[in-house]
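forwarding from the other thread:

> can someone predict this with zinc ion?

sure thing
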Amino acid sequence: MTNVSISDLRKYGKTYNLSVLSVALVNHQKANWKLASSNYRSLKQIRKTSFDFDHFRIDCQFNPERIRSSAADTGIQSIQARPCFLCNENRPEEQNGIPYGDEFIILCNPYPIFPYHLTIPTLKHIPQLIEDHIQDFLHLTRDLQDFTVLYNGPECGASAPDHFHFQAGIRDFLPIEDELPSLLADKSERIFFRPEVEVYAIHDYLRKMLILKSDEEKILADTLKKVIRLLEPSQSGPEPMLNLLGYFKSGVWHIVLIPRRTGRPSEYYADEFEKILVSPAAVEMAGLLILPREEDFFKISKENIHSIYHQVSIGNDEFHTLTEQIKTLT
Ligand SMILES: [Zn+2]
C-alpha cells in the first residue's frame, strides 16, 4: 500500500482541492486495481427500485458485493480472529491512498454503493468511537465538499468496529440529500436555536432524526457532543447507538444524527421465507436500503420497510424525552 502523489492523480481528474483529488483517486484505482475496476463497472448496471411514502422515498439497491459488509460478523471473537482490513499492513498492494492530516488516510472503497465511494480510516488501529473524532468529522465534511461523510457506530453498521473509520459518498445520491430542504421547511420542529447553531427534530420520516445546522465549527462540535451525551448509553457497546451524516454547503454544515435502538432488525435473523438480509447503517438510515440478495430485492414490500425502520430507529417516547432535553441545553 502506497500513497499516491498529486502528479500521479493529474491523469485521472482535477487536483485543486481535496474533494476533486478524492474523485481522481477513485478514477486512478478503477484504472489500476482490478477489484475496484470490476466492482465499479458492476455498479453501473446495478438494479434499483424506489418506494414512495408521499413526502419522501426509500430506494433499494441490489448490490451482491455488499454481502461482506451486510453479513459481517462483528462479534468480538471473530473480529479478533481476522486480520484487520483497514490496517496498513493488511491492505492490498494496489490500494493507494491520500494522507489526510496526521491521523487519517483517504482510500477508495473497493465495494462501492456510490459511484465515488471513500473509506477514511485512521492510520492507527484504534476503536470506532466518535467522541474524540467530532472535530475530524467536521473537518472532513468541510474538506470533502462534493461528498456526504458518514459515520457508523460500532453497533450500527460499522463492519470494522475495532478500527476507526469514516466513509464518504459522492453527493446527491441519497434520498435524504434531496429531501432535507423540504423536511427542514415543512416537517421539522426547531428544538434549539442560537445565532450560531440550530437543531431540528424530524418526527414523521419512518425514522427519528436530528439535524444540526451551523457555520461555526467549534460551537457545532460542542453542541453535537452535548447531544450525543444525552443519548441512552448502549447496553452492550461502548457508545450510544447512532449514525451520523454530514455535508457542507454554502459555508454551512448540515449534520444528521440518527439515534438507534438496535443494529439489525428481526428480518435479518428470520427463517428463509421471512428473511431479508439488511444491516442498516448510515446509508440505509439516509433512505437507501442495500440488499445483497436478489430474492430480498424482489420480495421487499412497503410493510417490510416500515417494520425495518421501526425496529432500528428509537421510539416516540424516547425521542420525545431526548428532544425535551435538547431544548434545555445551554
Ligand atoms: Zn486495523
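DSSP finds 13 helices and 13 strands in the chain. thats all i got for now
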